Amino acid sequence: MENNKKAMYKLSYGLFVCTVKDGDKLNGCITNTAIQLASDPNLISVSLNKANLTHDILKKTKACNISVLSQDADFETFKHFGFQSGRDVNKFADSYDKSNYVMADNGIPVITKGVNACFLLEVKQMIDLSSHTLFICQPSFMTVLSEAKSCSYEYYQENIKPKPVRAGETPKGETIWKCTICGYEYVGEDMPDDFICPICKHPKDDFEKIVR
Ligand code: FE
Fold first, then answer.
1. What is the rounded CA–CA span in Å between residue 64 and residue 27?
2. DSSP state, residue 14
3. Residue 180 Cα, ligand 1 centroid: separation in angstroms?
4. CA of residue 83 to ligand 1 center, whole Å
């Protein structure tokens, strides 16, 4: 057997919007890391990359909501919450359709469009994991919003994410490192080992080298 990092892609994940609130500032990001950890008490964890604004707000406020994305979710939702930072844009500005979400009792939005369930969470414990912080949370409320199937990471890759366009985009002979997560392209022969995708914050391991 050979060591093969693609094994990481064989782990199964759901996809979620983790929303937070800091004063008047609402924000949220896409995560694949919400899981039930224990049943009595019921504990749900979410692990967030420290580069995300949502991480900083959750660490400070210790409250978030998890909206479980269903197979009805459209690519726009992934782009809106996953491919831009709350440091650059207000993800809950007036331009974001108010029919996509409701305000929950904790003052934090729950996404309702393309979502089949939601959880209101209070952080009980935080564990520093270098690149990420693991937030261990207790739900104060949860409900089912639709009977649509949950969107797995695999379903997203195969059915929601647009297929990449490869040919004819750049002059011939250029080396491109393409992020397999969000499609961001880094042009150049060598990409630094510590490179982090500016869009989705994934590391060099998630880039594929393409020569055009
Ligand atoms: Fe990316």
1. 10
2. B
3. 7
4. 8
pLDDT per residue as tens digits for the range 21-66: 999 999 999 999 999 999 999 999 999 999 999 999 999 999 999 9
Q: Looking at residue 167, what is its pLDDT?
A: 47
* 114 to 12, 67, 69, 147, 177: CA distances (angstroms): 20, 9, 6, 11, 31
| Spatial CB neighbours of 203, under 8 Å, sequence gap ≥ 6 | 194, 195, 196, 197
Residue 199 CA, ligand 1 centroid: distance in Å:
5
**Alpha-carbon torsion (173, 180, 193, 54), positive or negative:** positive
Report the predicted TM-score, pTM, of the whole model to 2 decimal places.
Answer: 0.83
- Expressed in angstroms and rounded, the spacing between residue 82 Cα and the centre of ligand 1 is 9
Whether residue 211 is predicted with pLDDT greater than 90 in this model: the reply is no
